[in-house]
Amino acid sequence: MIKDIPKNMLNELSRLISTHTGLHFPEKKWNALNKGIKSVINDLDTDIHQFIRCLHSSPPKNIIDSLTARLTIGETYFLRDKNFFQILQDHILRGVIEHPKRKTKKIIFWSAGCASGEEPYSIAILIDQMSPVLKNWDITIIGSDINPVALNKARKGIYSNWSLRGTPEKIIKKYFTPTAGNYFEIAPHIRQMVRFFQLNLMDDNYPASLNFYEAMDIILCRNVLMYFNEQGRNSAIQKLSQLLIENGWLITGPAESGFVNLSEFSSVRFPNALYHRKGPPRKTIENFNPIRISRKVHSTRPTVTVKSGKRFTDRKYVRRITDGVVTRPPKKQKYVMYQEALNDYNRGDYLQSVKKLLTIISKGKNNNNSFLMKTESMILLAKSYANIGELAQAKTWCEKAINTEKLNPEIYYLLSTIFQSSGNIDDSVKSLKQSIYLDPEFIMAHFTLGMLLLQKNAPAESRKSMQNALSLLELQGAEEVLPYSEGMAAGRLIETIKSMKTN
Ligand SMILES: C[S@@+](CC[C@H](N)C(=O)[O-])C[C@H]1O[C@@H](n2cnc3c(N)ncnc32)[C@H](O)[C@@H]1O
User: Fold this and answer.
1) Is the CB of 80 under 6 A from ligand 1?
2) Contact yes or no for 469/442 (Cβ under 8 A)
3) What global pTM score does this model have?
4) Is the Cβ atom of 163 under 6 angstroms away from ligand 1?
5) What CATH number should be reported for the domain holding residue 120?
6) Measuring CA to CA, which residue among 343, 317, 74, 68 is closest to residue 202?
7) Whose CA is closest to atom 17 on ligand 1?
8) For residue 194, how far is its CA from the centre of ligand 1 (angstroms)?
9) Which of 261, 291, 368, 435 shows the greatest Cβ crowding within 10 Å of its Cβ?
10) Residue 176's domain spans which residues?
11) Are 190 and 303 found together in one domain?
C-alpha cells in the first residue's frame, strides 16, 4: 500500500495540478488530494518523486487523463437547475427565434465541462421538445470535458436512476429505454444531436488549437469554475469569451455568476439567476414586455484565430444573437410566474403562492413545453398547503409530484414530513426508506429515519440509521450546511447524534 504523501509534497502537488488543470486544492482538501494522487501513482505504476518531476515539465496526456479521472468531481444530472432550462426556453431561445432580423437559422451550444453528458443531452431534449418552433433551425450541441472517463460514459449515453433524479417521468418515458441492471439508455436521435470532445480549459494552446470554425451562441460552463482558483477562473472566462459570438450568452452555475467580471460581458438578471451576455448592457427583463433593442446592433465580428490561422471573419456570413424587437407581446413566462409564487412563499403569503401555483399547473395542461417547472410547482404547492395546515391537499400535491418524478428522493422526503405532521409515523418511515433507496447518501433522511424509529421504539434499527448518517457526515466539512436541514451544519448534526443516549 502506498504511504500517505507528506504535507510539503501535497503543497507542491496542489500548485502543479492547479497549473495544469486549474483544479484548486487548498489545504482543507488535502485528504482528497492525498487519496487521489495515491490512486494515480498506482494507476501509472510510478513513484511520487518521479511523478512530481514529471509534473514540473509538460506532462504527457496519459498523466493528465489519470489525474483528472481521479481528482475531478463529475457530479451532474439531467435538467439540473430547471429554472435555468425554463429561462433558456422562455427567454434566451425565444429572443433568438423571434428576432425578425436574424438572418441565419442556426444556434450553437457548447457545454464546457459537461462531465458524463447529462447537461448537453438535456439541451438536446429541450430542443426536441421545442421542435415545432425550431423547425428548420440548424442546432449544434457540443460537450467537452477534461476527463476522458466521463466522456466515454457520455458517448455511450447509458445512465443510472441517479442521473435522472430530477427528470420528469414523461421525459424519461419519451427519451430513454430501460436496459439491463436498472440503467436507462438515451434515445439514439438525442445522442446523435450531441458531439463530445476532450478539452482542458487550462490548456495553453486553446482556443487556437480548436477546430471550431464558428463562434458559439450559448456557452454553458456550470459548476466548473468553482473548482478553479481565481487565476484559473479568470483565464477560463477570458478564453470562453473569445469563443462566444457578439451578444452570445455565458451561463455559469448559480454560485458562480460572481466570478464573471470581464468588461466584455454585461450581466442580465432573471428571477433567481444571473447570466452574462457578451457586449454592452442592454435592457433587463424587468422591462421585458415587449423586448426592444436598446442600442443599434452593429456587426462586431468574433475574431478567434483557429489552427489554420483563418479567422471567423473569413466565413461568408457573421451570425449575431440578439433579443431585439419581438413580433408579438410575450405571455407571462413560466419562470417569472414560478418565481413570483416562490417570493410569496418566502414572504409567508402561502395563500397567494397557492393561487399562482394552481394557475401555473392548470396552464400546463396540453402544453408540451410546460414540463420543466411542473414538478417544482407541485412541490411548492404541497409546501404552501402544508404551511397553512391543509395537510390533505399537501399530501395530494406531493403524491402528484411523485407521479411526475418518480426517481426524485427529495419529494419522498417532503412526503415523509407531511406524514409526520399528520401524526402518521408508519407512512413517514416508508417514505423515508423510499427516499434513501433512491439516494443512499441522503443524510437528513437517515437522521430523520433514526429519530422516527426511536419514536417507534425500535432502538437497534434507529442506531443503524444514525450510524449511516454519521458515516456520511464524516465525509463532509464541519461547516457544510446540510440540504433539507433548515441551515444545520454537518458538525452540529454530528454533535447531536453523538450526544444521543442510544448511540
Ligand atoms: C461538477 S461537473 C459539472 C457538470 C455539469 N456542467 C453540471 O453543471 O452538471 C464539473 C466538471 O468540470 C470538469 N473539469 C474540471 N476541470 C476542468 C478543466 N480544466 N477543463 C475542462 N473540464 C474540467 C470535470 O472533469 C467535471 O466533469
Assistant:
1) yes
2) no
3) 0.84
4) no
5) 3.40.50.150
6) 68
7) 146
8) 17
9) 435
10) 83-227+236-252+284-314
11) yes
